[in-house]
Amino acid sequence: MRAPASTWDGRWVALALLGVYYAMLFLTGPGSELVARWRLAGVYAHPVPFIDLQVFPAARATLAAGQELYGPSVADPLRRPYNYPRLWLAFMRFPADKGMLCVTGVLMAVVATGSVLLFWGRLTPATGVWGGLLLCSPAFQLGVERGNTDLLLLTLVAAGAWLAGDRGGWRAARALWWIAGVLKLYPVVALAADLDGGWRAWIRRTWLPLVLFAGYLAVSWRDLPAVLHNTGGGWVQSYGSEVPAAAWAQVQAFYHGAASENFKGIGRALAVLAALGMLIRGWRAGAAKMAPEPTRALLGFRAGALIYLGTFIAGSSFDYRQGFLLLTLPQLLAWQRGGHRWAAAALVALLPSLGLNYLLGGWPGFFLNEAAGWFLVPVLAFLLGASWRRAEPAAG
Fold it and tell me: What is the rounded CA–CA span in Å between residue 148 and residue 160?
């Protein structure tokens, strides 16, 4: 006898959608047209597979030739300069061999996708469809196609939220989030997922990873400006406060032969005001109606929202970094089931934010993508502020 639909785990639905997605990519035409099919799906693919992994063997070749690590690279297929801390070269050690790159890239994609599915926990079939669409989105699949190391960081952040929320493994969680911060700086904001009981209580709990992170910055400060300078951005498959200015500069250059990006500062200021204002409003609203204890789902939401807000305000990031928003799904679903309209609005906005772009929908797709991304800033900030529990008043 067939089990009732209510007992199905929606994660199998998500995996089925992902399987159909890859079948359409890899089995519907010759391999020579794979790049074109990726682009039809909204992913700006390159002929060189897992192109972002190429920077590591190229960096070692640069050092072997006695050249400046952060200078121009002649070994990288796109001539991109190295844009990672030196620490990565201690363990990302593989040759510029197509087979090895493919094995590494596929393994990273499988581990990241598996970590997200495990973190989500059991889903209903309906929410499994929503999760599957997010996994198939151009934003997440851009990281898969490029073999970007943000997939590894997503795994670390998800594992930390899992350990702290369900198993009481706060020390291990902070260690994982600290490692992720050391590797690429921005994930260190996930440490604020534990901001319950006020700043003083948080600092008492988190002082060690904060001190160690500051020590790491002090040791590597000579390289960090070059790392940040060499890290690219854009607007076609990017999000952040500077993207509208970058797109406008592209339009100016196309029609007038000159470009100006003077609006970048305005975009960042608007993002800061929107996020900070709604964060404070949410904090004042209190967490009594949101979540009494920091569960796994709540910690994943906080970590994902913090990373999204931080990277959005910072300027421009490639869309694959929106993959951290996948960690917000379980808590948003729980709030939505409880009748919270802001959570329902955030769930609706996730799909166009991750799933649309200029490549997929032209200018209408770009504007819808931007509207959804900017809409998420105040909504996630409000929910984030409301989710932190304040210090209990002293008995008197």
Answer: 20
